[in-house]
Amino acid sequence: IKFCISTPEKNVRKTGSLGCVGWFIVILSAIFTICLFPFTIWFCLKIVQEYERAVIFRLGRITDRKAKGPGIFFVLPCTDSFVKVDLRTVSFDIPPQEILTKDSVTVCVDGVVYFRVSDPIASVANVSNADFSTRLLAQTTLRNVLGTKNLAELLSDREGIAHGMQSSLDEATDDWGIKVERVEIKDVKLPVQLQRAMAAEAEAAREARAKVIAAEGEMNASRALKEASLVIAESPSALQLRYLQTLNTIAAEKNSTIIFPLPMDVISHFMKK
Keywords assigned by UniProt (predicted)? Predict the structure, then answer.
């Protein structure tokens, strides 16, 4: 036993026969058009723009595997009808979605999607409203993709999340004749309590780094002072030069009081007496 399963797209591409009654109606419509040619010409000729395509239905069936246009094309009155499809890229905003991340944090995320119609026949015959269906699918895809990410990945890997959403949307809308060109995450809104907690965490981290830097500076300064004391101990005249340099610095500031430091050896001599 063999089972044959066909997708709606394949069924659309195969143009069926109109049947005897259908051909009779088509021939009758053609004769009627020829007989009233000067008047029916306005009903037979149709024009579509460069960015549009026309999907023609003859007695409810698609007449050709390829959409008509751009330019002028011919239809039979009373038997033919057509649907215009815009091929230009369309962009829309994904409404803000309340999403629970993988690490149980509630965030509000919105985005923008760019798509276009790649197959006019499939977009008309396989889905009732390709534009509206793509918008709804984008919202559910955003929730499904971000539900598998934690907060850190959501804030740092927006480009990777956008590419993942684009691949999922493009694969899902392939049967509808829709090509998703680009997906972008616009904004991620965090709860006020979480913003305060993150701000406090960042402030504490900055204070910790500042204390470490200050401690490293004190350590380097103490090492420099130790090396300077060793140099002064080796040369007693260096202490006298440093003393004269200090007096010069004090005098340059126009101070009325000058402090003369006395060596401890002199003071200890008087204290013994």
Answer: Membrane, Transmembrane, Transmembrane helix
